[in-house]
Design goal:
The protein is an alpha/beta fold. It folds into two domains: about 150 residues, Aspartate Aminotransferase, domain 1 (Alpha-Beta Complex), CATH 3.90.1150.10; about 250 residues, Type I PLP-dependent aspartate aminotransferase-like (Major domain) (Aspartate Aminotransferase, domain 2), CATH 3.40.640. It is about 35% helix and about 15% strand. Strand 2 and strand 3 form a beta hairpin. It binds pyridoxal-5'-phosphate. The site of pyridoxal-5'-phosphate has 15 residues, from helix 5.
Length: about 400
């Protein structure tokens, strides 16, 4: 079968079911085009995208300026490997560091590669700078974390679905409750090299820690000579109404992990940003990636960062996020247990009696709004940051219709 002979959505579902690994359970909507906040299915129906590919398309689908940067670079030079230099990498470094006030950058591709890279660097720093005995480095992580899908990362997940059946896992990680600075302090030993945490736990259901938590974690890490690694792969780049979520507590991480929207959804680009000289422990040959730092990725990321700032998307996320959150709180619905959010990273948690969030996502789909349940009872709402007031109000009308009762 070719695309031309596939006409009904069920044909596409059948192909996926026949040939694909079954590691996802998507909504049955087959998308073929996107522009701004909207996507269209193969039958021409338009939807408002309230997931944004888990915040990878913060800049909106197929942003014209990023598309232009990508096609221009793709027709010039795509990949050199790091065996040679290219004329985009240095500019990407300079612009990204200036924007985030960082000292240096390690470019990778997917988010989880940034996480893995930070773990490697933190351990090496622990042995070479902090003086931890070889093989003894400990990294503290939080319960209900999500940092990606590689073996070492699922090895310190507390989600049985992500973890079960994939062991054995490597040692060196300690789990503490999220949002509890006393538990963090109690877990720190002389062998602790890093604390890895999401500023807001996205996959766990948009869990916002108590005010002051990150500031306290910053203070503890500084006092005990522990590297604070903030995973801003989902919270970063405007999603919470600030460039980085750390700004809400006026702190700076030692290592910041960025991915997803770093390429506006065009291409996998991730990075470790370093405030201290932590990245300096890496010497030639000790870490790398064939595609990391390639000119195509760098050109795309440079423009993805530029449009985020120049087109006012970060402030718009704050304004529309507040409007959407307030509107959702004002819905008088017996089904809703909690509405929480920061910027355009929002969750509506339903009471168990509502019977699960999936059915409401399906009902929203029928009304032209796409979002995805997280766990069983929570609807996650994260539209592209280019959403307008009219579109926000339209989305609210759909939520009101579906959650009435
Ligand atoms: C998506 C995500 C990752 C993993 O990114 P991939 O590109 O899927 O590897 C890591 N951490 C957080 C917080 C994420 O949201």
């Amino acid at each position: 079968m070719t695309l031309e002979t596939l006409d009904r959505p069920t044909d596409f579902l059948a192909l996926e079911a026949e040939y694909g690994a079954r590691n996802y359970k998507p909504l049955d909507v087959v998308l073929t085009r996107g522009e701004g906040v909207h996507v269209w299915d193969v039958e021409g129906r338009r939807y408002l995208d309230c997931l944004s590919a888990y915040s990878a398309v913060n800049q909106g689908h197929c942003h014209p300026r990023i598309l232009e940067a990508m096609t221009r670079q793709a027709s010039r030079l795509t990949l050199t490997s790091r065996a040679f230099r290219n004329d985009q990498l240095g500019l990407f470094y300079e612009e990204f560091c200036a924007l985030t006030r960082s000292h240096s950058v390690l470019p990778m591709n997917t988010g989880v590669e940034a996480v893995e890279s930070a773990i490697k660097v933190a351990r090496k720093w622990g042995y070479e700078v902090k003086g931890v005995a070889e093989g003894q480095a400990e990294i503290i992580v939080c319960a209900d974390n999500f940092h990606g899908r590689t073996l070492s990362v699922v090895g310190f997940s507390t989600d049985p679905v992500s973890r079960s059946g994939f062991g054995p896992f490597g040692p060196g990680f300690k789990v503490v409750p999220f949002g509890d600075p006393a538990a963090l302090e109690a877990a720190i030993t002389p062998n602790t090299v890093a604390f890895l945490v999401e500023p807001i736990q996205g996959e766990a259901g948009v869990i916002i820690p108590p005010a002051g938590y990150l500031a306290k974690a910053r203070e503890l890490c500084t006092r005990h000579e522990v590297i604070l690694i903030l995973d801003e792969i989902q919270t970063g780049l405007g999603r919470t109404g600030r460039l980085l979520a750390e700004e809400h507590e006026g702190i700076e991480a030692d290592l910041t992990l960025i991915g997803k929207a770093l390429s506006g959804g065009f291409y996998p680009v991730s990075a470790v940003l370093s405030n201290k000289e932590v990245l300096g422990v890496l010497k030639p040959g000790e870490h790398g990636s064939t595609f990391g730092g390639n000119p195509l990725g760098c050109a795309v990321a440079r423009m993805a960062l530029r449009v985020l700032v120049e087109e006012g998307m970060i402030d718009n996320a704050a304004v529309q996020g507040e409007r959407l959150t307030r509107g959702l709180r004002d819905l008088r619905s017996n089904l809703v247990k909690d509405v929480r959010g920061r910027g355009l990273m929002i969750a509506v948690e339903l009471h168990e009696a509502a019977g699960g969030a999936r059915a409401y996502c399906v009902a929203l789909q029928a009304r032209g709004l796409l979002c995805k349940e997280t766990h069983d009872h929570t609807i996650r709402i994260a539209p592209p940051l280019v959403i307008t007031t009219d579109q926000t109000d339209w989305a609210l009308e759909q939520f009101e219709a579906v959650l009435a009762g």
